[in-house]
Specification:
It is built from eleven helices and 15 strands. It has 357 residues and is α+β, with helices and mostly antiparallel strands. Strands 1, 2, 3, 4, 5, 6, 7 and 15 form an eight-stranded mixed β-sheet that branches. It has a seven-stranded mixed β-sheet with strand order 9-10-11-12-13-8-14, sandwiched between helices. It is globular, with a radius of gyration of 21 Å.
């Protein structure tokens, strides 16, 4: 199998869309965006007799002063994971790149369905997914993206989609409309407003977000490329909830969601999601990916409430194998993933004590 680098946006996205397990985080736009935030992207195409067999957007971040780096193929590589020969060839190339370039590790996290539910997963022979662990890849302690998700089949009619929802979800969608909630398409001028709601959501729900410039770059560049659509729910003339819907090929992803405490009794998030589903279906998508689900289907999981919300729309829990790392040097991998985080945590604790925090 031949491997070549692609340096043309249209060629890359067209080839990527033709492959199974293609993903919006493997697109040209995502590589260029991450290239503006500390990563170096390359676009690797694997061909057999001039026929595309696999593609990998491979990101590299260089670690200052060490001459080492880390490699990451977000939600990739894209290929037919039932084709053992193709998978072996792609893995071998990624391993070779990691060794040549003195990478501490190369990480992949493709949307490959998990054969069983465990955390960490146990599939086939020993611990981990057999096709990877047999080559020395290990289940990663650092899952960059959500391992599992919830999927909604968009091929039924809108009436059939509504009928498949839980009664309470249908009720809340209709309640939002009756209480005056309206959903409109967002534009580039709405980005700061969307970020303000996102910041409010992060503070309320206790998660960390990046600065405005990061999201302005991501959202505006994907909107300009026709790969993202914001939707905003308004009540009494004020924005109360929003989302950024990414789409590529036949799939849409609910990647970013935000809401305010204002007018939550009007259930704006329910109508907002229904309009996002309708938008995705109208634009040719056949799958609505809710982007995130619990590691385990138990009420003790922190994402249980979010999962129940998504499930109410008729979504199906979809577990995946998660992220795996290949590390050419076990020593450097241990330093990076084990020793270094503990050292940094100790330094942060000492700093807080010294400044009275």
């Amino acid at each position: 199998m031949n491997v070549r680098s692609v340096d043309d946006r249209d060629e890359w996205n067209s080839l990527l869309a033709s492959l199974s397990t293609s993903h919006v985080l493997q697109t040209w736009e995502w590589g260029q965006f991450k290239g503006r935030w500390g990563w170096s992207p390359r676009y690797l195409l694997f061909e057999d007799n001039d026929r595309p067999r696999a593609a990998a957007l491979l990101l590299r971040r260089t670690l200052p002063r060490l001459g080492l780096g880390v490699l990451y193929a977000p939600k990739g590589p894209a290929l037919d994971y039932t084709d053992a020969a193709c998978l072996e060839a792609v893995l071998a190339e990624l391993e070779s790149i990691a060794q040549r370039e003195r990478a501490i590790f190369v990480k992949i996290d493709p949307d490959v369905p998990a054969p069983a539910l465990h955390s960490p997963p146990f599939y086939g022979e020993g611990s981990g997914w057999g096709p990877l662990t047999r080559r020395g890849w290990r289940f990663s302690s650092e899952q960059i993206q959500f391992r599992n998700t919830v999927l909604l089949d968009l091929t039924p009619t809108e009436e059939e989609l509504l009928a498949a929802m839980k009664p309470k979800t249908r009720y809340n969608i209709r309640l939002a409309s009756k209480k005056g909630v309206a959903v409109r398409r967002g534009e580039s001028g709405d980005i700061e407003q969307l970020y303000a709601m996102y910041a409010e959501t992060a503070q309320r729900d206790g998660f960390i977000i990046r600065p405005l410039d990061y999201y302005r770059d991501a959202w505006s560049s994907f909107m300009a490329a026709g790969l993202a659509q914001p939707l905003i729910a308004e009540a009494a003339g004020e924005p109360v909830a929003g989302l950024i819907l990414f789409h590529f090929g036949a799939r849409a992803w609910y990647v970013y969601g935000m809401s305010r405490d204002l007018h939550r009794d009007r259930m704006p998030s329910y109508l907002l999601q229904w309009e996002a589903i309708r938008w995705a279906k109208a634009h040719g998508c056949t799958i609505y990916d809710w982007w995130g689900a619990p590691d385990e289907l138990t009420e003790s999981d922190p994402m249980w409430g979010v999962y129940r919300f998504k499930e109410g729309f008729g979504g199906r829990f979809a577990p995946h194998i998660g992220a795996y790392d290949f590390a050419p040097s076990k020593l450097w991998y241990w330093v990076y993933t084990g020793a270094m985080p503990r050292v940094l945590a100790l330094m942060r604790r000492r700093h807080r004590r010294n400044v009275g925090l």
